[in-house]
Specification:
Number of strands: 2
Shape: globular
Order of helices and strands: HHHHHHEEHHHHHHHHHHHHH
Helix content: over 70%
Structural class: mainly alpha
Number of domains: 1
CATH class: Mainly Alpha
Strand order of the largest sheet: 1-2
């Protein structure tokens, strides 16, 4: 097993170092230049759009809002990788890895905008939820814009298989295992033979309750969990930073110095700091990976660009806020990293500063992070199963398999599965980026249309008549609204 694990790691390192990292960086820079840095230029607009509320439908059902879709994607983005992944990146790549994670977030925000705007444009609508209830929801993502935008179904099917296996099964097993491992360090009697199966069963039951109500129940859960887990973790981190405030200049010096040191730039062609920062940054914020657009497509908004802006904001929320806090916790308290890595390193840094109680609080935070990720991961699989087949028996089977994987993931080591997930994620990113590079021209046309309407003081509304040459667009009206358009507060703000 160890030989297989080593082989997978070697293949994975080569794939990411010589193909995916250059492609991710070059694509992000291209999108940034072509959009005139939309992720920075329209940052105030992102905050405005996030507050948009979706009006109830005629039948009284409530559609998924921009914020609801944001929390689904944030639930999958913000997971144990924000605690364990950042710690591992610092251990293997040094403090300089944090700098390159920041760079990935700033550049990747443009990639997130493009893929999520496209997902909104090419989304489809169910006449009913896939569990047979409700009046219908939207679904979409890379598989859908590959088929409808590029006119090719086979890459969409390939992507749908990759994301369903990676997020629906593999990552949920990893999250379940992480919860069990962290809980074992905080709960007395955790060494008993019944502990891991009990935790696995509990997680399976809770996840089953959360997912069996369809996308609306998923959003009702994530809109509560995501803000709570973010606030608690940020409060812990802020306390640590304030108690070590005098170390902040040293920390920033280590981050910048480590990012541009000769050793980091020269080692192995791409230094450890660059490789770990870029790779873990993408794993964390998922910009360009093709996962977040599946959640973004579920929102009911008046213009595709709105959800592109919201998902771009999600990249900043994940990396510049949550991941940075983990980095500050570690680097202000543990400048000598030693042999520790992962969640143990973060937990040790917290307890060294705040006391043993902080370790128990972190256990609760990790539970919220991992469980919310499991919910988001499940939804990505469900959305892509809907692309591959409409057979009614498939979804219940998928749900049963996900719950079984969650239970089994609590019972043992998942190192080989995690490394295989890296390969699947690489495949996802490769397929998605090769699709959105040619389709990005459409996303930039949408952006021009949006900013033109904002400069006119309007709340932008998209109709197919605005771009009649587009094909494969299903869910947007053919003609402009006949009712009076709503004026926005502060006409033209943020649309420069």
């Amino acid at each position: 097993m160890s030989t297989l694990d080593s082989l997978i790691v070697d293949v994975n390192d080569g794939l990411w170092t010589y193909l995916l990292i250059p492609l991710v960086v070059c694509a992000g820079l291209y999108f940034t230049v072509r959009s005139r840095a939309v992720q920075l230029r329209l940052f105030p607009e992102m905050l405005r759009v996030l507050k948009d509320r979706s009006e109830p439908r005629a039948d009284g059902s409530k559609p998924v809002s921009s914020f609801g879709a944001f929390t689904i994607s944030a639930a999958a983005r913000v997971g144990t990788g924000n605690i364990a992944g950042v710690a591992t990146a610092i251990t293997l790549g040094g403090a300089g890895a944090v700098f390159w994670m920041w760079v990935m977030a700033l550049v990747g925000g443009a990639s997130a905008f493009v893929e999520s705007a496209l997902a909104q444009l090419y989304k489809v609508r169910d006449t009913k939820d896939r569990d047979g209830a409700g009046s219908g929801t939207y679904r979409g993502g890379p598989a859908y814009y590959m088929q409808r935008g590029l006119g090719k179904r086979w890459p969409g099917v390939l992507f749908a298989v990759a994301i369903t296996v990676t997020f629906g099964f593999v990552f949920n097993a990893v999250q379940s295992n992480t919860i069990t491992s962290v809980a074992s360090g905080s709960v007395s009697g955790s060494g008993a033979s019944w502990f891991a199966p009990a935790v696995g069963l509990l997680l399976a039951v809770l996840l089953g309750v959360a997912i069996c109500g369809g996308v609306r129940r998923i959003t009702s859960v994530t809109t509560v969990l995501v803000p709570v887990m973010a606030v608690v973790y940020l409060l812990l981190g802020t306390a640590v930073v304030l108690l070590n405030l005098g170390d902040l200049p040293r920390v920033f010096g280590d981050i910048v110095g480590g990012a541009f040191g000769f050793k980091e730039l020269a080692a192995g062609g791409i230094g450890a700091a660059i490789q770990q920062g870029v790779r873990r940054g993408m794993f964390s914020n998922e910009a360009g990976l093709g996962s977040a657009p599946n959640a973004g497509a579920a929102a009911e908004v008046t213009h595709p660009v709105k959800q592109g802006l919201v998902q771009s904001l999600g990249v900043f929320f994940d990396t510049l806020l949550i991941c940075s806090m983990t980095a500050f916790i570690i680097l202000t308290t543990t400048p000598e990293l030693g042999g520790r890595q992962g969640a143990d390193l973060t937990q040790s840094a917290l307890t060294d500063t705040l006391g043993g109680w902080a370790g128990h609080v972190l256990t609760a935070v990790v539970f919220l992070l991992a469980f919310s990720s499991m919910i988001g991961n499940y939804y990505y699989g469900e959305s892509n199963i809907g692309f591959m087949t409409r057979r009614t028996w498939v979804l219940p089977v998928y749900r049963a398999l996900v719950l079984a994987v969650v239970f089994l993931g609590a019972l043992g080591s998942v190192s080989v599965i995690w490394n295989l997930a890296d390969v699947f994620m690489g495949l996802m990113a490769l397929i998605n980026l090769l699709a959105i590079i040619p389709l990005s021209a459409i996303a930039f046309r949408l952006l021009d249309d949006y900013t033109a309407q904002r400069r006119s003081g309007l709340d932008p509304v998209f109709t197919r008549s605005r771009m009649p040459d587009l094909t494969g667009v299903e869910c947007w009206p053919d003609a402009p609204e006949t009712s009076e358009r709503r004026e926005t507060v502060g006409a033209g703000a943020g649309a420069a």
